[in-house]
Design goal:
heterotrimer; B: mainly alpha; 3 helices; 2 strands; C: alpha+beta; 16 strands; binds magnesium ion; binds zinc ion
Amino acid sequence: MSAFTDLTLTAALEGLAKGDFTSVELTRAHVEAVEAARGLNAFVTETPDQALKMAAESDTRRKAGTVGLMEGVPLAIKDLFCTKGVLTTASSHILDGFKPPYESTVTANLWKAGAVMLGKTNLDEFAMGSSNETSYYGGVVNPWRKPGDNKNLVPGGSSGGSATAVAARLAIAATGTDTGGSIRQPAAFTGTVGLKPTYGRCSRFGIVAFASSLDQAGPMTRTIDDAAVMMRVMAGFDDKDSTSVDIAVPDYRADLAQSVKGLRIGIPKEYRVDGMPAEIDALWQQGMEWLKAAGAEVKDISLPHTQYALPAYYIVAPAEASSNLARYDGVRFGLRVPADELADMYAQTRAAGFGAEVRRRILIGTYVLSAGYYDAYYVKAQKIRTLILNDFTKAFESVDAILTPTTPTAAFGLGDKVDDPVSMYLNDVLTVPVNMAGLPGLSVPAGLSKEGLPLGLQVIGKPFDESTVLRVGKAIEDAAALKQKPEAWWRAA
Amino acid sequence: MSLDKATVAHIAKLARIAVPEQDLPGLATELSGILKWIEQLDSVDTSKVEPLSSVVNATLRFREDNITDGGQRDAVLANAPVSAQGFFVVPKVVE
Amino acid sequence: MATLLHGATGEWEMVIGLEVHAQVTSKAKLFSGAATEFGAEPNTQVSFVDAGMPGMLPVINRVCVEQAVRTGLGLKAQINKVSVFDRKNYFYADLPAGYQISQYLQPIVGKGTIILDLAGGETREVGITRLHLEQDAGKSLHDQDPSSSFVDLNRAGVALMEIVSEPDMRTAEEAGAYLRKLRSILRYLGTCDGNMEQGSMRADVNVSVRKPGAPFGTRCEIKNVNSIRYVQQAIEYEARRQIDIIEDGGTIKQETRLYDARKGETRSMRSKEDAHDYRYFPDPDLLPLVVQDGLIKSIAESLPELPDEKKARLVRDYGIPLYDASVLILEKERADFFEAVAKGRDSKLSANWVTGELFAALNKTGRDVTDSPISAAKLGGLIDLISDNTISGRIAKDVFEIMLETGKDAGAIVEEKGLRQVTDTGAIEGVIDAVLAANADKLAEYRSGKDKLFGFFVGQVMKQSGGKANPALVNELLKKKLAG
Ligand SMILES: [Mg+2]
Ligand SMILES: [Zn+2]
């Protein structure tokens, strides 16, 4: 059975197409893997019955000759995507029992393409976190461990459950969302591929909002090819999202056929942050060499406002979140703490329903928008965003893509950073600028740390140029030729 | 900017999140720490910079004026903690 | 008109500004496809967007934008080609998302003006500060249950135009005239039905008082008043309340108040006592709203004749008094009715009959001119009979009453009842002779210089003729006969 769960998305599609196996067989293997991996806490909700039913329907369609782009492939869905009739929690207590009577556009696109849902994956509460430890349902455990060490590591966040599901071979691929690095950082920590598309490329309709001007859905897979296939299905114009952009979705997989020869790759000096371990720097250097060897031209560039992206993000994201999360009030869905007075019911419900990090961000967001502080914080942050965007725009006049490390470190231990919010926030220092500018960003596994943990490189592209980003990612993937995967230590127990 | 207890209590009230009195000092310290870190932005001169309105280089798209939704009261109320006679029910509001 | 109020310390002036929430006439809501129709069963016109469900996003309705532009043009206001939707954050049971999508710093419509039609044909200009688009909230019912409120979201998300005036009004009558005129402009434009009973038009009334010439005083805002009469009553009450407080040595606290129509008083709103801090910021789910020149132009070209233009034209083309014109233009249908009556007829006589007898009759029965029991054609027929001397104005009033009851043509009634005016000189002379003979004493008095008795003789002749004698002929013939 392990052969099924080791299949990449593209390999699974080939096998299904050739009739080597059915979607039901493929799905059953993954359902079993999910059940055997409960110790990783990757899923909030498992939907095995629905998975097998969808798989059977897929097999029927295939027999009838109707084959979607992801026909029969079992996926894990981040529990931030609303799925009709299936518990959707955002890993928050406040959404207790919430079953949306509607489906998000991105998941609807996936089902339309024939994909199968295994369940809903754990995440940092309302996607606020970089280690998955803020989940009401408990932290997710990274399937990777340092060789010879039993210590549990975080999978990164907020799409930690999805990253873990993909890395631990519980799902062939998964959906993630990325507001400040929530796809790319856990991808880097788990040795998987994570693509945050251009803002406006994937519909936000039906995705529980964290920070509306930054949130984007994207694929999490084990290979670049898989990401290319899944990206094409997830993407597309949606008239239900006013920020969705009406622009053709290319055949990303076909575009991968082009090499990186002649591409100009920018290396921003500002991404060499203080205290960055030498091995991260070395990995970055290695990435440049690989790309040069593949025929790309590597150029130094400057993105002078990089260091301000993260503090500005911690104004914009909490501000938007404080407003987006006002709807969780115990009136129309989710948790309610009864009280005699309405205002009291709100305050008690929200105190009980939100965890510490979410409360912290709502308070910060409320403060920076409040009378007398709006200009000093929110407007200032939006001006910084303009500067960051201008930096990128200028850089892209002379380069086709930008290469950086994804994270300043490899995965860290559970509980290591929970007491220091700012040090936790620094996890996203290399990924946040991409969100602030709305650009596509990819994390591709590029090597292992000296302790044997996965490390990723980040490729940043021009708006709506996911194709080039994936091509560069593919060149790195090919050159790195990583064969390692996490030992299935959780199965033994 | 460092936040005092009273300010934290005020924003907690604005945000409708009950914070027990004894948690206010700790929260004030924590939030002040974050705001202090954010203050590094003060060193950037933004006097001649326009705030970003959206990374999407477009303007609002119009929907046509057609009735395409509604008529689904049960679905609208399905997740309500308390509902009665087709209404959401909340503790008495005094106007 | 008395514009000042008298207090113990002398005269006071009221300063009044109005914020009117006018429901945009559209089939669907501002940001969702749910219906806007009034009176539906609770929560049946609610989309998941309106209910603030997780992951739901707003998409703007083209017609609502066009209606706002149309209204702006009707108010002779500046149209802002780029405007921005902001979130106004506050918690309330009938505000599902925890914020209202509104326009704060950059509204779609800027400064404009409105001309008030006051008593006696007088006019007064009131400035419009702005018009912006925003969502309506739902509705909470507080009387269904002793310990809970019931929430209906049918209204939630319906498009409103908030139309803000400058604090240019000085009396409750002016506030009433403002609301009547605004409502009439909105109805002419077809952008709001102006139905205050159904809540499609509500006013927030800002009132302060000051000594004439002094700077503005502290104002109170009376929320959501839903009839013109109540607006006027609330203003009178509130101004008096403020004067009493100040004259007793107190100060006015800026606050939001509620008008209790049953008690005829305003009171502080408990639910609004919390510090106001709406934390406005641009809604990140939306992009800037851009209205293209072409759209503005095409809407401008399709504007109907508006009340003020119509008034000017009625005065100019029909020569009717300004006051009659301002009464007629309040509702387009009234003016249309008048024009149908006046076509090819004596326009002043037509205006008299429409604004006089007809409107009085309609008022009495609470009807609109659109369901008048006497059609314009029939009223015209009556006027024709007056003009060609078939009947006198006096008789016409009787005929009008019969028309109201029976709906018959004036001509038929005149024939049936034999009301045709007598213009036969011989017949009238016969009546005069009889009257003079029966009042020989009065005749003698007249002839000895008591001219005033002329009226008495006219009255007697008219009475003897059953009101049918032509008054002009009676005058003429009587003068001759009396002269001897
Ligand atoms: Mg107002
Ligand atoms: Zn308003």
